[in-house]
Amino acid sequence: MKAGVVFTGTGPILVITSYPSIDDPNLVNKLKGKGISKFIAFEVPIDQCQHIYGAKYHSIPEDLKEAESLEVLDVDGLHIFKNFSLKKAETPFAYENKGSSKCRRCPEFTVFKSKGVILPHR
User: Fold this and answer.
1) Which of 18, 22, 37, 77 could form a Cys-Cys staple with 97, CB 3.0–4.6 A?
2) pLDDT (tens digit per residue) in 47-98
3) Structural domains counted in the chain
4) Is residue 62 packed enough to be buried (19+ CB in 10 Å), middle (13-18) or exposed (0-12)?
5) Which residue range is the domain that position 30 belongs to?
């Protein structure tokens, strides 16, 4: 299992995954499926997660340990920043979905990321 801090548009989240790396294309697709299409991520030590989160870490479903899956362990950005050093972080992985995508808050609009504009659907 791997653990990583993922910086999203709404702040950092801590994820635990059975994928072999934080930059695995299947993990990227899993994040995209959850609406995270632009992020910066870096791996953190799994044993540090076990120590910090204790029972919460150990309550992760067993199937996560067997199949390619993803579990969000923490969404509290302040707590994550307190417990994981950016200076000790491995090389970050950045991802940005190319092209246009639906705006999650306003599904009737399309976001054209290359131009930075939002236009209504026609």
Assistant:
1) 37
2) 899 899 887 777 776 656 667 788 889 999 999 999 998 888 878 899 988 7
3) 1
4) exposed
5) 2-120
Q: Tell me the β-bridge partners of 12.
A: 7
Please give the model's pTM, rounded to 2 decimal places. Answer: 0.73
E strand or H helix that includes residue 8: strand 2-8
Per DSSP bridges, beta strands 100-102 and 109-112 are: antiparallel
How far is it, in rounded angstroms, from Cα 76 to Cα 101? 27
Tokens of 58: 């150990």
